[in-house]
Amino acid sequence: MNKIFHFIVAVLLSSSALANDSSLPYDAWRLGFSAPNYMEVWIETADVVDIQGQVYRRAMSGTSAIQTPPNNSGNPKGWPKRPGWGKGKYVTGADLPKRIYVRWQSLVEPQTYQVAIDIPESTREIMRRKEKVFCAFDGKLITDYREALVVGLAPGGIAKVWVLGPCLPPIEVTRVKAEIDPRGPYEGKSGGEYDSLSDASKAYIDKFGVPYGSW
């Protein structure tokens, strides 16, 4: 058993809460995922531990938000200055996040990664803080919260996290490097077989390769 597995088991067995953390000031916060152009991923699971010690398994799974423009016209290098909300959903019933565990397949390599992302208190403070901002959606000044966490997943096991709101710009909060899951895809239950790339992604990789080091 590897160290990430032991770490996650310890977290899941813990039910202690941090008494000085307050509840979120809205109904639910959102967890989303994105990937650079053509760098397709498959999220096997994204499990959340909130500040009360409650565990929300498979808070998200499946494909992330991604663009695969035809004719190799997209650029996968680096991250956008204003990342979107990604593909995801609201973590209903959860308090603010303390840790997010993600296991995913990087299909362009291919490789399976796993990581536990600690969400610092400074990020939760940002998520609690309401701000006044002019919102183009409403055409007026509103009070808004950064109620969404977006995790960008890139080849090499890179995971970058932003916090943002419907009308508030994103703030980068952390960047971590995952470790390889030696069990392979689907916890070793697929015989080492990965899902197939789309034709657009395969065409880009065949011609240009993977831009490691740009994320």
From TrEMBL:
The keyword Mitochondrion appears for this protein: no
Signal peptide: 1-19
Protein name listed in UniProt: DUF2931 family protein
InterPro entries listed in its UniProt record: DUF2931
Keywords (A to Z) from UniProt: Signal
Lineage of the organism: Bacteria, Pseudomonadati, Pseudomonadota, Gammaproteobacteria, Pseudomonadales
Record bears the keyword Nucleotide-binding: no
Compositionally biased spans, kind Polar residues: 62-75
Natural source organism: Pseudomonas ekonensis
A matching Pfam family: DUF2931
Record region (Disordered): 62-85
Domain of life: Bacteria
